[in-house]
Amino acid sequence: xxxxxxxxxxxxxxxxxxxxxxxxxxxxxxxxxxxxxxxxxxxxxxxxxxxxxxxxxxxxxxxxxxxxxxxxxxxxxxxxxxxxxxxxxxxxxxxxxxxxxxxxxxxxxxxxxxxxxxxxxxxxxxxxxxxxxxxxxxxxxxxxxxxxxxxxxxxxxxxxxxxxxxxxxxxxxxxxxxxxxxxxxxxxxxxxxxxxxxxxxxxxxxxxxxxxxxxxxxxxxxxxxxxxxxxxxxxxxxxxxxxxx
Length: 245
Ligand SMILES: O=C(O)CCC(=O)C(=O)O
Known about the structure:
Blueprint: H1 6-12, E1 14-17, H2 23-43, H3 49-52, E2 65-67, H4 69-72, H5 74-81, H6 83-93, E3 97-105, E4 115-118, H7 120-124, E5 132-138, E6 149-151, H8 177-180, E7 186-188, E8 195-199, E9 204-206, E10 217-224, E11 242-243
Antiparallel strand pairs: 1-8, 2-3, 3-10, 3-11, 4-9, 5-8, 5-10, 6-7, 6-9
The chain binds 2-oxoglutaric acid.
């Protein structure tokens, strides 16, 4: 495993490492989450459709995200435990880490919607803001065209700002325009099988997908083992915290 650039991480609050996994391994994850997604969609109650379906794709019902694959899908749990990934996570957080929460983001072709800028630490309310890092695993090439992540360089060194939710979207917490107007956002394309890491305070967002290609990703939210989500903005199931090392 190549050494991780800790200087870049500390100053910028994010880091891209390509080639962590092979493309064929990502294909196996995609096959599994497609099956899971079909079953989830078939059972999705009316009241949850606005949060889980992609609002940008009008022609058909298509999922925007799925929660906690690390707890429900052995193939994702294997990724979360994989030493090729965990070695990098421990380089960033220190030894002894758990996955607290995880998400699959689908961002479908021809309309997949944007994710507004936010800080994970506002959502999670951790006991130590330095103890949270997300590993965002690219299941497809993530490009400028299909909606890769963008980061606010150095925002890991600043505070966690209050977020707001637009009318009728109570879960869609985001940073206010007045804060974002002062902060340029840098794109972070990643190749399939690569991993984009971000600190829990780092501003991040993704654009819409107007391309013909999927932009799927698996985000594993790691914490140091002593960290809890003590004052979360949304409910998280502490019982799903999975000790890795
Ligand atoms: O994949 C996206 O568009 C959003 C990802 C995100 O917000 C995260 O991984 O924390």
